Description:
By secondary structure, this protein is α+β, with helices and mostly antiparallel strands.
Amino acid sequence: MSADVDAGLTAMAHESMPYTATIGMEVLAASADEVRAQVGWSERLCTAGGILHGGVLMSLADAAGAYCAFLNLPEGSSGTATIESKTNFLRAVSSGHVVAVSRPLHVGRTTIVVETDLWDDRERRVARVTQTQAVL
């Protein structure tokens, strides 16, 4: 499921959301219809037993979802802010990488709702995140 990293989009994400560099997020593709990003497994991002920390998974989903929401902003808007996020964890990740696939569910004047599926490198769903972004 992993694809080639887009260095330009990754640099833009790191500049606009510096925390994405901290977790090592790489952007694979970005359009209003879908954003794909990934984080590689790293011991420094793990909890007990070498399991990728749930906060890293949530951070990846939040950043990819925010990027998707930003690409769907109504004209004249300046940005977004996450106002609600719900995560269902489905399996642990202990190696490889995780790919986030974010798609808009609702694009309105005041809120944008994005759904993000997280997949491991064996193409198994790791988590599903639904978030609401306020339009600023």
